[in-house]
């Protein structure tokens, strides 16, 4: 049996350490305030190692956003279970999404990207494609499977996808972004998610 090339697990460990360093530093220091030297120091690797895994800071940033989204909302979360209740599946996706956007790191990144947009349209586009667009594509595929299985009746799945995520953000996420949100409880989140899913199903349940 062919053995794995020497050093490969170590390389994967270094790549993971670099991504973890990016997850910590980009939200805390911003894109411009985070250097590749700082990433290397935080990850405990050389700057050359960082560049060997990621060609430039923009590529690293994109990979960090993608990794964070996949960590919170893995691909299997969007696999349609046509034998199970659609409401439960929507609630699971909704809670994972809300937990992601309500995290301190995500709020910091949201503020950073809002301020960064005027300076770098390219960076904004990279963020969109690595994070929000990937999640929307996954959720739209989920909706299409549920529509085919007779669980939903949606004439425009793409529009419904945007509506679902916008409803989940709601006023609460806006207040968090502005920094004027009072502490909320787990019950507050449960009620917000339940109300969102119920509204979505009232709009798109089979007639």
UniProtKB/TrEMBL annotation:
Residues 12-72 form the HTH tetR-type domain. Keywords: DNA-binding, Transcription, Transcription regulation. Gene3D superfamilies: Homeodomain-like, Tetracycline Repressor, domain 2. PROSITE patterns: HTH_TETR_2 (PS50977). Residues 35-54 bind DNA. One of its GO terms (molecular function) is transcription cis-regulatory region binding. The keyword Transmembrane does not apply. The keyword Acetylation does not apply. This is TetR/AcrR family transcriptional regulator. It comes from Tahibacter soli.
